[in-house]
Design a protein that fits this description.
By secondary structure, the chain is mainly alpha-helical. It has 2 domains: about 40 residues, no CATH class; about 200 residues, Cytochrome P450-Terp, domain 2 (Cytochrome p450-Terp, domain 2, Orthogonal Bundle). The chain has 13 helices and 3 strands; from the N terminus they run ααβββααααααααααα. Strands 1-2-3 form a 3-stranded antiparallel beta sheet. The chain is globular. The chain starts with a helix and ends in a 34-residue tail after the last helix. One of its GO terms (molecular function) is citrate synthase activity.
Length: about 280
């Protein structure tokens, strides 16, 4: 008989949602072993995120760098699909939670997933470095593969609105500052800048790092695995989503679509035509 069969109903129930994250019972809340009352007022929100995801409290500088990454990507205006959706949902009379959920649900591979893709890309290069390949060769080999076998763009580079994404240089500058103080290694910044330089050589023009490529550098330096970076982006962008949903809810617009009502879509279907007449029309 299996151990499962030998366990009591209570034991099975306790193990059903077993977790290392939180212990809770009447009068007690512990997160990763820490009493909640000991954390409140002593631990910043970025540090709390770190504790919940990683299981240990970060150093002060680690928490600061995580906060920098989270703060950089909070908003990009109503032309960003997630923000536009939050605002449209708010005009439909739904609650703020529904407006936020509607927006967050579109943060997928195309809108919101590039940071995860960029860090996975950097990680392939980092693995090659660990195997003894030089940075230049590791970058060149990975770019050869991405252009030949996968897709025509490199995650983390270029922006459809900004010739130079104003957030990226500042994030790299701060990464270099933290590396100079020994908080992080600076390895992922080296990788990102080498990728940017190699793509510039291949394309004959500079395609700068964007917010996704830059935040991927910070998350990589801090040791977060690529899938978590998408969740971190969702946390970050939720701030802007909340702000826009709230602002829109305070305005008078109702049932606002993606365009003003006098701007209609282009119809490309069959031209107007008569309904076919037949002997059975009266049936």
């Amino acid at each position: 008989m299996s151990n499962v069969g030998k366990k009591t109903g209570r034991e099975r129930g306790e193990e059903w949602w077993q977790t290392d994250i939180i212990e809770m019972r009447p009068g007690v809340i512990r997160l990763r072993g820490y009493e909640i009352q000991d954390l409140i007022g002593r631990v910043s929100f970025p540090a709390m995120i770190w504790l919940m995801l990683r299981g240990e409290l970060p150093g002060k500088e680690q928490a600061a760098l995580l906060g920098i990454a989270l703060g950089a990507a909070v908003d990009h205006g109503p032309q960003a699909p997630s923000i536009a959706i939050a605002r449209m949902a708010a005009t439909c009379g739904v609650g703020i939670n529904s407006a936020m959920a509607s927006a967050i649900n579109v943060l997928g591979d195309v809108h919101g997933g590039a940071g995860e893709q960029a860090l996975a890309f950097y990680g392939d290069i980092a693995a090659a470095l660990d195997a003894g390949v030089t940075l230049a060769d590791a970058v060149a080999s990975r770019l050869d593969r991405i252009f030949a076998e996968e897709k025509s763009y490199v995650p983390g580079l270029g922006h459809r609105f900004h010739p130079v994404d104003p957030r990226a240089p500042r994030l790299i500058e701060l990464t270099r500052d933290f590396a100079a103080r020994g908080i992080i290694s600076g390895r992922f910044a080296d990788i990102a800048e080498a990728v940017e330089a190699d793509v510039t050589r291949r394309k004959g023009k500079k395609i700068p790092l964007n917010i996704d490529g830059a935040t991927a550098v910070l998350y990589g330096e801090l040791g977060f695995p690529p899938p978590l970076t998408r969740g971190l982006f969702v946390l970050s962008r939720s701030v802007g989503i909340l702000a826009h949903a709230w602002e829109q809810s305070q305005q008078s617009g109702r049932n606002k679509g993606p365009l003003p009502r006098e701007w209609l879509w282009a119809y490309t279907g069959t031209p107007v035509r008569p309904f076919p007449q037949g002997d059975d029309d009266s049936k």
